[in-house]
Amino acid sequence: MPILNQEIHDRVLSALDAEGSERYTWDQDTKIALKGAIEILITWLNEAFADNKLTPESLRELVNVKVWQTNFYSRVSFDASVVGHPLWSLLAVYPEIETNGNPSSSPSTNKAESKFRPDLTFISSLKSAKRLTLEEWNENSNNAFMPGNTILQGSIKEYAYLDFADYTSSNYVKATDKLEATIRPGVSNQLVALAYLKYPTMPDLISGSIEFPNSLTDLLVELTLNKISFKQGQGGANLYGVTSQNINRLVSLIK
Amino acid sequence: MATDRLRIIVDEVLVTIKQTFDDKIVSQAQAAQWVIFVGNRLLSQHISKRDSGQFLNIFVDVPVSVATTSSNPNIVKGRKYVELPANIFDFNMDSGVEYIAYYNPDENCSPEAYKKTIQRTSPSDLQWLNLNDLTKPSPKAPYWYRAGDYLYIVGIESVPVKFLEMGVYMTINPLEEIDIDQPFNFPQELLEVLKRQVVDLARFSFLFPGNDRSNDGDDTASDNSRPVGKTQSVNDPNAAQ
Prior knowledge:
The complex is a heterodimer. Chain A is α+β, with helices and mostly antiparallel strands. Chain A has helices at about 5-15, 25-50, 80-85, 135-140, 215-230, 240-255; strands at about 5, 65-70, 75, 85-95, 95-100, 115, 120-125, 130, 160-165, 180-185, 190-200, 210. The longest helix of chain A has 25 residues, at about 25-50. Chain A is elongated and about 65 Å long. Chain B is about 25% helix and about 15% strand. Chain B has an eight-stranded mixed beta sheet with strand order 1-8-4-5-6-7-3-2, with no helix packed on it. The chains are: A alpha+beta, B alpha+beta.
């Protein structure tokens, strides 16, 4: 269940002892600070993902599994304008999938274009693609014992994917999103499913909600208050000091 | 007769060595390769020891060819030969081939009822066989000898034989051709030995230092944590030095 914006705002006002006053408002204070708090939390969570310390179950409100039809070159692009939300992180790529609808569809006339298939629901697959680095992608191609090799066929083959990159050229033109993930062994014009985290929707109206689990409510409140405290300048704090501290904290996470 | 699929054996090994998580370092293909390595050795020993048809594979209509040009190695112009239809065990005296036979359609007999078995020989023995009228290669006394993947047939040069029937002892298919969802034809009583020896191979691969096995972006891996296998003396500890 997502966290209600109203809940965050109420707790922030309570901590500031400003209930009933108009000293701090949603539009001018809490919303802006909450956006910053969410971005800080996303940076922390990215680091936790990188260290394998966080499972997607902790963010189940943001986990999606959708179906795409790859392009001629076994690539798939995530077009946020078509899917309806931006991508945060790719969790898994499933080739050879079973869906609940009619999978037939003619491939795009433009060989570079993949298709988002909102008419299909992912049901199951026996395969997952392993994520490879840019260097592993080439070196593993002829190594029968590494995922993504092109040596083994049939039931023993193992898929791999290469994370999103821009491959466009004057002969490889895409209308919208240019970033594509590649899957190997090739699944040209076939259906694949992507399991991914959608980027959390930023707060706008106070009647809205944030797609984080309820257990993160207090952390978000504290981070929001931390942002608001910038403006207060209490305890000898000045803008340079508090931003430097925050910058150091964030940089240490990505170093 | 139903036997386990190769997948069952491979997956059981992967579970035993705890390689079932998403970042596992031993792939299904690698475990299958180990099973093939060990399986071929055990299977060859088993076939050598037992007079059994359990692992005999018969191929019919194996085409007889005549090379029009020579090609190194092993293709000799003008000689009749057949190509082995599968990988076979290299037993002593070419006994990976149990038999080769042909039938003569001119004799109006069905191939099952009237076969002429072709005897195995070697190129050097052929010299001696040619010296005696009773052993000289002929349609009634044909011979074969092996050169790599080709079996040359001697004595039927003047007979229009187009196909042969062969009984061979096949190795387990190589990894690139194997289908792990097909039944794994292997002596059931040796499955336990197979698993133990495959797990031994797996343990050997785990002896390499963990730092060298992970892509941590650091090329200064130390071998402090390298596990060392137990060294055991082959000498009698009670014997005087």
